[in-house]
Amino acid sequence: MINYELMKQVHPKQKAALTRAKKKGFEAVKEACAKAVKEWEQVGAWPDDWSRWQRAIEDSANAHTRTTGVFVNAPRLEDL
Fold first, then answer.
1. pLDDT per residue rounded down to tens, the chain (80 residues)
2. How far apart are CA 38 and CA 60, in angstroms?
3. H or E element that contains 62
């Protein structure tokens, strides 16, 4: 069963956390994504804009690879 009230509470906070994490780098984005996925599982559904988190983790992995020269494979959200 989907807990819509919980999603209304956590989703804006998740978006803000992702925005802050993107400024910090790959590890922060990965942590924010993992936390969001865990909360979505508690809610009982993923939001319609779940791909925002997938794009963020892919973009941050690519940026990390470009800046450090160390290849980082971006995980899929469902694997976090």
1. 999 999 999 999 999 999 999 999 999 999 999 999 999 999 999 999 999 999 999 999 999 999 999 999 999 999 99
2. 20
3. helix 51-68
CA torsion, points 20, 57, 78, 19, in degrees to nearest 10? 20
With beta carbons less than 8 A apart as the criterion, state whether 30 and 75 touch.
yes
Alpha carbon distance 36, 16 (integer Å): 11
In eight-state DSSP terms, residue 74 is: P
Print the domain residue range for 58. Answer: 4-79
Between the two ends of the chain, the Cα-to-Cα distance in Å is: 22
Indicate the pTM of the whole model.
Answer: 0.93
Domain count, the chain: 1
